[in-house]
Design goal:
This protein is α+β, with helices and mostly antiparallel strands. The protein has 2 domains: 228 residues, Rossmann fold; 113 residues, OB fold (Dihydrolipoamide Acetyltransferase, E2P), CATH 2.40.50. It contains 8 helices and 20 strands. The strands form 4 sheets. The chain has a 6-stranded mixed sheet with strand order 6-7-8-3-9-10, with helices on both faces. The protein has a 5-stranded antiparallel sheet with strand order 13-12-11-14-20. Strand 12 and strand 13 form a beta hairpin. It binds adenosine-5'-diphosphate and magnesium ion. The site of adenosine-5'-diphosphate (ADP) has 11 residues, from strand 2 and helix 1. This is ABC transporter ATP-binding protein. Belongs to the ABC transporter superfamily. GO terms for molecular function: ATP binding; ATP hydrolysis activity; transmembrane transporter activity. It comes from Reyranella soli.
């Protein structure tokens, strides 16, 4: 178990910049996700940590000591890949025990450890199966067990659920989190799936073109995104163009947005124009006179538990929100919309 600190990591491939000054830290026992679209540098960062490639610049420290000069095989890290990478001719127990063959310990001790970790990932009874005799979810659990069996200082996972179907993905995701927490193993988890990152992480690094756009807890990332890119990558988001009139103090700002004057939250300072984030759940169609915004429903879709509506506001901005499925909408579509200002977030409109 280690803390891991990455500072100003850079990696270029010819003219392409894969990592452009990435800095983040994982405390002991924390799970940190690297979240971002394909090509933003997630795998490159993970491969630098694993020691499969060398960064051009920057440092990686485990418990305060640089590991850049330590070869991959000596770093004591467990790695789980998207494609499992199991040995096809070895059975489950042999795959899992493989990493122990080159370590100290008797055969009996190795067998005890393999059994222990197979229990953790719920594969007892399948010891003698070959990888091809297992489902995708089972194969990925073998890969997880194989990474954990050496009691790694760090667990590295690169899109481990990408090849599983939706139903299995949830199960394996919870298992990974349970096992990681029970063993208090520090972990880095690469994914392009925001829901996965939110559910599993202590902290998320949202990546953009080889840089970290924001590094914070899932709650902070969702509720107080540093910029529009982060907000749109971490869930459904409505953005309203806002003119900032003045700061009111205490993190409140008076803005013109959506054809109304609103007092909203933000980190500031702001000058002139900004972007107001209103997640769908912070908006509601109301009939009790408490709405600050006026608009017209231009589309509604019944989804069972909820009805999704698209509403065009007075200034022409369009927002998406949910309404109870059994609530009739007015025939002419004209509605009053309440914005829960405690759940809004004002952001700069241009970020370098
Ligand atoms: N071995 C390589 N040679 C050349 N370019 C690479 C190599 N590996 C990655 N890249 C480039 O670096 C960028 C980041 O890639 P990667 O880290 O794989 O992104 P992600 O895992 O977020 O999809 C991409 O533009 C990719 O094309
Ligand atoms: Mg990748």
């Amino acid at each position: 178990m280690s803390s891991l600190e990455i500072s100003a990591l850079c990696k270029r491939y010819g003219p392409a910049v894969a990592l452009d000054g990435v800095s983040l830290t994982a405390g002991q026992g924390e799970l940190v996700s690297l979240l971002g679209p394909s090509g933003c540098g997630k795998t490159t960062a993970l491969r630098c940590i694993a020691g499969f490639i060398d960064p051009d610049d920057g440092d990686i420290r485990a418990n305060g000591v640089s590991i850049l000069a330590t070869p991959s095989s000596k770093r004591d890290f467990g790695v789980v890949f998207q494609n499992y990478a199991l040995f096809p001719h070895l059975n489950v127990a042999e795959n899992v025990g493989y990493g122990l063959l080159f370590r100290k310990g008797s055969k009996a001790e190795r067998e005890r450890r393999v059994r222990e970790v197979l229990e953790q990932v719920q594969l007892v009874g399948l010891e003698h199966r070959l990888p091809r005799e297992l489902s995708g979810g089972q194969q990925q659990r073998v890969a997880l067990a194989r990474a954990l069996v050496i009691q790694p200082r760090l667990l590295l996972l690169d899109e481990p659920l990408a090849n599983l179907d939706a139903r299995l993905r949830d199960d394996v995701r919870w298992l990974i989190r349970d096992v990681q927490q029970a063993s208090r193993t520090t972990a880095f988890y690469v994914t392009h799936d925001q829901a996965e990152a939110m559910a599993i992480s202590d902290k998320i690094a949202v990546m953009k073109n080889g840089k970290v756009a924001q590094f914070a807890s899932p709650r902070e990332i969702y509720q107080r995104p540093a910029e529009r890119y982060v907000a749109s990558f971490t869930g459904e988001a409505n953005f309203l163009a806002a003119e900032v009139e003045r700061a009111l103090g205490g993190g409140l700002f008076r803005v013109r947005a959506g054809g109304a004057t609103l007092d909203v939250r933000g980190a500031g300072p702001f000058a002139g124009s900004a972007v107001l984030l209103a997640r769908p759940e912070s908006l509601a169609i109301v009939t009790d006179g408490t709405g600050q915004l006026e608009g017209r429903v231009v589309k509604s879709v019944f989804l069972g538990a909820v009805q999704h509506c698209e509403v065009v506001l007075r200034d022409g901005a369009s927002v998406r929100l949910g309404t109870p499925p059994d609530r009739p909408l007015p025939a002419d579509g004209t509605v009053s919309v309440r914005l829960d200002v405690d759940r809004t977030w004002l952001m700069p409109d241009a970020v370098p």
